[in-house]
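Sanity check

After download, print the first record. It should look like this:
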Amino acid sequence: MEILGLVICIVGALCVGSMSPLATKIGGTPLQKTCGISVASLLVGTVIFAIEMGLGFTYLTWGGMVVFIVSMLNGLFMFLGLTFLFKSIKIADVAKAVPINNIGQFLSATLVSAFFFGNWLGDNAGVKILYGFIFIAIILVGIILISIYPGGKSEVLPAGMVEAITVQTKTKNTINSKFFLYEFISIGSLFMLFFTPELIANFNNETSWLFLNNPNLVIPNTDKFMDGFDLGMSFPMGIGFFLSSFVALFIHSKKVHVSYFVIFKDKKIWRNILPGMLQAIWNVALIVSVSMIGGSIASPLSQISTASAMLLGIFYLKEKREKPYLCTTLIGCGLILLGVFMATIMNFELHL
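Expected structure tokens:
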């Protein structure tokens, strides 16, 4: 069962690692990409909700509705996180923006989980903290090596959209402060996808909004929030994500004085449903793998997506890297994977 959970987590990580490169290849503005992905998220969430209702689940209690509302709020965080991620990709590239974003989420979630929720405290706390900071240091060195590449790009977006900015120095391009601002907002928003369910799991009386109401059907883990998530959460989160995206699209249409329906019919929005499906596969894979191997193992293991996104950016999107910077990027990737491997082993032993 644990091996299957590991495989599901790795497959899901490869899918989400492919999402940003594919969306970049399809093209469109950050808002168009996010809208397409939100459609896929709502579709998958609706299908899962219909299946669970057909199996005999129903929603009960005020506590359950709190979970539903918080899950919708997570949809807003998903919208903000992905929109600003795509904005940062416009300024830099996939191989730079995505690894920094993913590892920022991972480190934030790891430290909050370790100290706020006490996962590194208790028995052998000193050993856990020492080992934890060693793998965090290795990952940070990997991020620095990936970030050494000074490249930026300048790209004019469609009517009314803001141009991606490249700052010129005396000898080379360098990423400007907007890149780091976008990354900060994106990391903070996507981190909330981890933080709010953990808060619910620790402090709310109810940890799900769907409860099994069929005495003839027994499904493992249906009475748990599964470390802050269950499959039913994908439906309210999909609603929040979809509404946030298309409200933002409506506001943008007013600003640029373009008919909402003209923007809505843009093919790039609907083509981005495909990378949205990859994101949705990851959402389901994460929920299932967390129920099998625990969030403390699934979280670091999911950082395989960082390496896959970076390599796809370089070799699939043909993002330019001069030889010295290609070497440091690949070394940084290797260090990130080493740190992730160490974190997975540590948490796997604790899980056992």
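If your output differs, re-run the checksum step. Summary of this record's structure: The first strand starts at residue 57 and ends at 58.
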